[in-house]
Description:
mainly beta
Amino acid sequence: SNGAYLSSLITKVTDPESGTSVSRTYITENNGGYVNLIQHKFPTMQSGDIVELSFNPTFTRGTMHYSAWIDYNNDQKFDGVGEHIGNTSSATNKITFTVPDRPNKGTRIRISMRKDQSPPSNGSGTYDIGEVEDYTVVIVPRNKNSEVLASAISPLRIGTGDHIAKPEENKALSTGRKTDASGSSTTVVTQ
């Protein structure tokens, strides 16, 4: 059955040491099957970050089940040890996980939705009602001085549509681009 089963996917990546979080919302495709969305990147994650995936279903008949995987070993499959990162249903709509110490320059995260039953264990299969979406994710190692590192790379971890807030400030930050005389472009964060 064609149609959108998920109106949006919200990712929130939190550095547990500094309390800084980055959120990004993805408006999903109306594909009713498989869609390759690797041109859409999740916020960069560091080992130890806490990630929350929130699902906004559009399909309301029955119970939607969601699963997520990260292809840590980059073999284009989602059946490796520890690659399945969680399940949920439309009753809770959230998967939360801690990023393991598996740095990766870029790989896929797979989100799967299926009506009235859990998606297959490896993220592939035939669904009567449901869909599968792949996105890009980058995982970087956590430095021993991670709070300094996190504040130094935060401008690199953000893009258009991101929202960053430190819990003690609880104020939104905005981003822009600054180009110097040599033509080098830098992301600028302002409050």
